[in-house]
Amino acid sequence: MIGLDNATVRFGTRTIIDGLSFSVPVGRTMAILGPNGRGKTTTLKAMLGFQPLNAGRRIAPEIVGYVPQTGTGNQRYRGIDIAVMGRAAHLGLFGQPGSADFEIARSALERAGAARFADHYFDRLSGGERQLVLLARALATGSEALVLDEPAAALDLHNQERLLNLLNALRQPRDRAIVFTTHDPNHALTAADDALLMMPGGQPLFGPVSETITPEHLEHLYGVPMRVVELAGPSGETHRAVLPAFAGTRAA
Amino acid sequence: MTARRSRIARQTLVFAGLLALFAAAFVVSLCVGRFSVPAGRALELIWLGITDPTRELGAIDERIVLLVRAPRVVLAALAGAGLALSGAALQGVFRNPLVSPDILGISQGAAFGGALGIMLGIWGLPLIGMVFVSGLVALILVGMLSRVNGRTETVTVILCGLVVSSMFSAVVSLLQFVADPNTSLPAIVYWLMGSFATATWERTLIAAPGLIIGGVLLWMLRFRLNILSLDEAEAQSLGANTTRERWLVFGLIAVIVGSQVAVSGIIGWIGIVIPHAARLLVGHDHRALLPAAVVLGAGFMVIIDTLARTATAAEIPLGVITALVGAPIFAVLLRNHYRERHAS
Predict the structure, then answer these.
(1) What ipTM score was computed for the predicted complex, to two decimals?
(2) Could you tell me the residue ranges of all domains in chain B?
(3) Where is the ABC transporter domain (chain A) (predicted)?
(4) Average of pLDDT values for B296-322?
């Protein structure tokens, strides 16, 4: 389980998050949605323990699998060396990764779809490829909680779909709590059970996707008229999708 | 699989080459000098010295090899290894390839202790103790200055290191200004420029424990150094207590650099040039980088010291040669590094 209990964070006189409570139990996935500057990143950092809280408390296992957007780029490590770093917490200060740890790292690369980058230098990979290696590292920690910072932000449409499929594949066994931030409500519809909407006025909305991802809530969230439509997916079944109805938009 | 195998083969080759270079430098350094000794004879003498250390040393070549050159070569190798290792660890922890052990103020702090000791007429073990303690004091000062609101930022540590360094070097200049120009001034100046000329087995034994213990502990931290070389947030998410572990690394480096400065003065450039070269040879992973830096640093220091005592009739200060050799190498490395980065 990972979450926050009545958490408040202030930067100077500005209150970024105010009495925020939510929790993601093992087996569920939560998407954090909201425009820039409403505290998505602060919430994520608070969950990870990087952001000290002014009030309230953090609920999290000792080690959380964290997937940053890009990761440290200037050190030349191979993919497998990055993935095996996920074992650090199990090895202690003077510990060295053994063959069992490398085995875990290899299967984590496999699960993240990054096995082919094992012997590639991390700093030579593209942004999307790096992210998969970082995901493998987070999986190698063995943590029951997985937190991804804007995993789809730097990806083209094709890679967005691959990432969402991957998130769903990780979600399917229902054996971990997954949290990710995103700008696109469609990602929440596709790969999350719950959503946290960082509403204006500091009143976040937390609940199941079916109740939170609605045109009314999203209009309030983004300040843009939103429409939810039914689409036939590639295999015939229908999906819900969210579209902004920008004021200046005219159907071509 | 083949990529991994060829990489292991390449690393084995690199390490074999480095060890051969070091062994060659070691033997050559025992042989050359104003009194030259054939290589076979030098090795035979070393063997006799190891197997029968209590033996009476009669012949002149025995005394030169075993009492003058061997301790000097061993001390140079230990000092070079320690400086290179410290530089490699520090560059990893700071995530910055341009920092070196002098950046934390340790070298200048230690220099202050040494200069003060020499001026006060202190010699031997107490002098070494003073050097060591003042190096540690400089490090602690940096630590206290850079801690703002309970947090320590890496950039602040570098800036405070610069501040403390220049404070101590100003005081060293002041000491030189007031030192007796007939007695203590030359000793201070010569010591500040770095030299192994005064090496004896006794001095080697004084420096060895700090260099070896600090080095072994850093080596044991090699995987942790990989973690600490990541972004602060990433390293913490992987379970590292970054602030505390970074200071542990700094402390070990203070022990190594303090021990080295105490017996051989300030030797610049090794801590920055050698880790760079080692990184080009074996990559950034500290599990391979640290041993490569140790062997290369030891070999390079022995070669430099041999040059220092044989190139001219009088001995050239080490600091002069390391700068003359190190700076151009560094410039070339830097240019190659950026050319490669732009090409990729």
Answers:
(1) 0.88
(2) 2-339
(3) 2-225
(4) 90
CATH of domain A2-207: 3.40.50.300
Mean pLDDT is highest, among B148-162, B217-231, B326-340, for B217-231
Q: Which residues 95-124 of chain A have a CB within 8 Å of chain B? A: 95-97, 119, 124
Query: How far is C-alpha B116 from the geometric centre of its chain's CA atoms?
Result: 22
Please give the structure tokens belonging to residue B132: 């060591």
DSSP structure string for A146-197: EEESSTTTT--HHHHHHHHHHHHHHHTT--SEEEEEES-HHHHHHH-SEEEE
Chain B closest CA to A120's CA: distance in Å? 9
Alpha-carbon gap: A89 to the closest alpha carbon of chain B (Å): 5
The CATH homologous superfamily to which domain B2-339 belongs is: ABC transporter involved in vitamin B12 uptake, BtuC (1.10.3470.10)
Nearest-angstrom CA–CA distance, B94 and B286: 14
Residues of B in contact with A119 (CB under 8 A): 3-4, 7
pTM of the model: 0.88
Give the minimum alpha-carbon distance from A26 to chain B in angstroms, rounded to a whole number. Answer: 19
**A63 close contact with B: CB closer than 8 A:** yes
Whole-angstrom distance, CA of residue A129 vs CA of residue A166: 13
